[in-house]
Amino acid sequence: MSSYGSLVIKTAQFIISLNTPYLLTVGKNGNTMRIFVNGNPFATVSNAPSIDITNNKMFLGYNFIGILDEVALYSSFLTPTKITNQMALLLLRIIFPFSFFFFFHLLFF
Amino acid sequence: MCLCVDGYQGVNCQIDQCTLNPCQNGGFGCYHDSGKLLCTCPVKFRGNLCEYDNPFTLGANPIAYYSFSSKNKLLDQTGNGHDLAPFLTESMDYPLNYDQDNQALTFFTTDIVGTSSSSITLGDNFSISILFSISKFSSITTLVLFSPTGVTGSKPLTITVSYIFYSFRS
Questions:
Q1: How far is A36 from A60, CA to CA, in rounded Å?
Q2: Cβ–Cβ of A56/B160 closer than 8 Å?
Q3: Which residue out of B121, B133, B138, B167 would a mutagenesis test of the A interface target, given it has the greatest number of A Cβ atoms within 10 Å?
């Protein structure tokens, strides 16, 4: 991964289990980025740099062995209410239990 | 009277349940997979038979939406299903054309989103929702990586999950 990013601007820790679905939502609102895990606010990044992902190649699942079930991109900052609603609907079909220390990293060149 | 496998019914199991139009909410393309009936759903709906609302499109319209729920199908924001030659879907253990060296599934946004020559553009206000599970630990796992092509001074976003080995001494 060293060729893909060199600056870690935020590390957020939570507990994760293998073979367990998680909903991760990352939103950017101006210079603020927020991370939600399973619909719950988890971390906030202030002074997040501008991100240019125009005309980009998108990769999914680098060093990933598991299931990427859904990926959705929005051109707006989802409100916490909408994220909570997403999670509520997912809970109707999917069980989200939580064990192992993991970190979410947002990396920038 | 016969005991039918899932997906078939009738005295002689002669009725393919796909012929009974089980897809709901505008779903189409019923097919059998591991004893299940599966449909390709409009982007607003989800489930094997498109029977419930899609949380990812309810109240917020994604500019791009990738669903790997339907085997070998990918749904874009138009709700159209695309055959996914380079991808596998539900289980990504070692899918077709899997990049073994990089352990990655890659695609170009312009290939998928179907907005002619334009690609996904996200400014300072955007959101990314990812539903995932990990079946084998890797020291650093990238969920999504946007890698720029020919854009100077840009900062692509990488979303990763990593963990730390803990050792304990008595």
A1: 19
A2: no
A3: B133
**Global pTM?**
0.69
Residues of chain B with Cβ-Cβ distance to A83 below 8 Å are 129
* Torsion angle (degrees, nearest 10) of CA A29, A33, A37, A39: -20
Q: Classify B13 as helix, strand or coil.
A: coil
Q: Model confidence over B37-53: pLDDT tens digits?
A: 888 777 777 777 888 88
| Residues A69, B61 contacting (CB under 8 angstroms) | no
Q: How far is CA B38 from CA A13, B31, B61, B146, in A?
A: 37, 5, 24, 31
Q: Name which residue leads in pLDDT, B108 or B21.
A: B21
Pairing mode of beta strands A32-37, B15-16: unpaired
Number of continuous H segments (helices) and E segments (strands) in chain A? 1, 7
- Please provide the size of chain A in residues: 109
Tokens of A47: 């002074």
Residue A78: closest CA among chain B residues belongs to which residue?
B127
Which site among A35, A45, A69 would you substitute to test the B interface, given the most B Cβ atoms closer than 10 Å to its Cβ? Answer: A69
